[in-house]
Amino acid sequence: MNVIQIIGIGGLPIIKTGDNLAELICKAAEKQGTPIQENDVIVITHVVVSRAEGCIVNLDEVVPSPFAKSFAELYAKDPAMVEVVLREAKGIRRMTDGKIITETKHGFVCANSGVDKSNVPGENYVALLPHDPDASAERVKEEIRRLTGCDVAVIISDTHGRPLREGEINVAIGVSGLKPIRDRRGERDLFGYTLRVKQTAVADELASAAELVIGQADEGVPAAIIRGYKFIKSETAKATELIRPKEKELFL
Amino acid sequence: MNVIQIIGIGGLPIIKTGDNLAELICKAAEKQGTPIQENDVIVITHVVVSRAEGCIVNLDEVVPSPFAKSFAELYAKDPAMVEVVLREAKGIRRMTDGKIITETKHGFVCANSGVDKSNVPGENYVALLPHDPDASAERVKEEIRRLTGCDVAVIISDTHGRPLREGEINVAIGVSGLKPIRDRRGERDLFGYTLRVKQTAVADELASAAELVIGQADEGVPAAIIRGYKFIKSETAKATELIRPKEKELFL
After folding, report:
1. Are residues B164 and A244 in contact, defined by beta-carbon separation less than 8 angstroms?
2. How many helices (H) and strands (E) does chain B have?
3. What is the pLDDT along chain B (252 residues), one digit of tens a residue?
4. CA nearest to A193, candidates B125, B57, B98, B99
5. Residue A129: how many CB atoms within 10 A of its CB?
6. Contact check, Cβ <8 Å, B119/A190
7. Minimum-distance CB partner of B2 among A184, A221, A248
């Protein structure tokens, strides 16, 4: 029988710049009686990674450009927030009705360049996405190995809106230790038919699964252990593999 | 501590038209020692629902239109398959390079109108999407209640490609008993900040979580129990709420 457990890791302190996030996660997991084990997948919501890495901006110190100011004024937005969103973007996909859909420097297409006002301490602070989420995931993975001796996979997750469908889901913006896409082309189904088009974005599915325990705004569960999922190991895979190159876009 | 279990339900017989799918799922869950419990979420891959409901087409009996024939010839496709895909569509979003992205009669935008050649018995048979997946989910939910006395939520899932990102993920195409979108606007975060934009597509996240145990082509696990997730109950919610109306599209 195939059973997977999703275990929320709670009881962490408020994460501050310079904190050893891996260590705090290992300790919290141990304290609640669910120590990290070999082959666990550890999913971490990006905002605590950003806070630990100091990817935090005080909006009071941001000088907005004239363009940011005029857009903000038109739609009753904070001009400093608009400015930060623009600075984090390498392109604008849509900027209308007060909404800004950008392409981030990493290549993710999302609202507000992933700049997040929630779960950030301080009146007027926002969290940026980590500078290099794959590298962040790798550092956490290596530190967990050093501290526990366990080889795990790490996923950094973010909540993204998406085209065509309502509501946000969690996706992987950083991975280490596992292949984000499971290529099943060539496998056979129950009746011997060879699959021809199946490439499953398992890292996104794992991020979404973890959100089921992380996504309680008031409980302070910034990470989850997914236990019992047989992932395909990789030392080189990156979450940027999940970004579809524009020239391969089928839907837009 | 917040723990969710995802339990694959295996050992079902090959599902045929007219089968009582709910009964077969309940029996299989009991036989493997994990009987269905109150407040479980039962996720079922659509193809077994389609087979039970007779939403199966023998391609040998399909007469393709001249348009289907010419498209199929151009891209070395099966003209009968192209014909079935077109018949299931209420619109074509893109039809190029041998790929067909349609809007199904339900309103889902996906490849090939969701017509599926895998996991269908018979040399030349394909499965259509269920005619009304929300109604299918409701029938299964009611039958599970009758058989076990347990009030559960039911999700019918399908594997969809998506814009912007590579790889497919599982999404909810039918729901019964739970709100597919958890509206968290107005909730407060860890630091007292009121969330303004958070609407989580939990039904899609549950479908993706279930795929982690269902998605083994060769193991015959067509359904999963998700246990321990506190969903918001609803007697009226529909998966069609997850379809974004064109006029609200932000990305395209």
Report:
1. yes
2. 6, 13
3. 789 999 999 999 999 999 999 999 999 999 999 999 999 999 999 999 999 999 999 999 999 999 999 999 999 999 999 999 999 999 999 998 889 999 999 999 999 999 998 888 878 999 999 999 999 999 999 999 999 999 999 999 999 999 999 999 999 999 999 999 998 877 877 777 777 668 999 999 999 999 999 975 455 899 999 999 999 999 999 999 999 998 888 887
4. B125
5. 26
6. yes
7. A221
Q: H-helix or E-strand containing A138?
A: helix A133-148
Closest CA to A48 of A85, A20, A6: A20
Tokens 């593999």 correspond to what residue? A241
pLDDT of residue B121: 81
Using CA atoms, how far residue B170 sits from A208, B45, B141, in Å, is 10, 9, 20
Binding-face residues of A in 50-89 toward B, CB within 8 A: none
Which B residues, 91 through 150, put their C-beta within 8 Å of a C-beta on chain A?
93-94, 99, 101, 109, 111, 117-122
Which residues contact residue A240 at a Cβ distance below 8 angstroms, ignoring those fewer than 6 apart?
A106, A107, A134
Contact call for residues A4 and B221 (beta carbons, < 8 A): no
Angstroms from B167 CA to nearest CA on chain A: 5
In angstroms, rounded to a whole number, what is the distance separating the alpha carbons of residues B178 and B230?
A: 10
- Would the pTM count as exceeding 0.90? yes
Q: Does B158 touch chain A (CB under 8 A)?
A: no
Cβ-contact A187, A198 below 8 angstroms: yes
Q: Which domains does chain A have, with CATH numbers?
A: 5-53+130-244 (3.30.1330.100), 57-126 (3.90.1660.10)
- Given a contact cutoff of 8 angstroms between Cβ atoms, the answer to whether A180 and A137 are in contact is no
Contact B241, B173 (CB under 8 A): no
Written as six digits, the tokens of A30 are 């141990």
Dist. CA B100–CA B81, nearest whole Å: 11
Which residue(s) pair with B7 in the sheet? Answer: A3, B225
CA A185 to chain CA mean position, Å: 27
Per-residue tokens: A87: 């600075």
The strand pairing partners of A89, in sequence order, are A104
Inter-CA distances, B113 with B77, B128, B183, Å: 15, 8, 29
Report which residue type is found at B160.
Answer: H
Chain A: nearest CA to B133, how far in angstroms? 17
Which of A197, A204, A215 has the CB atom closest to B169's CB atom?
A204
Sign of dihedral through CA atoms A81, A83, A84, A88?
positive
The CA angle A194-A200-A206, to the nearest 5 degrees, is 145
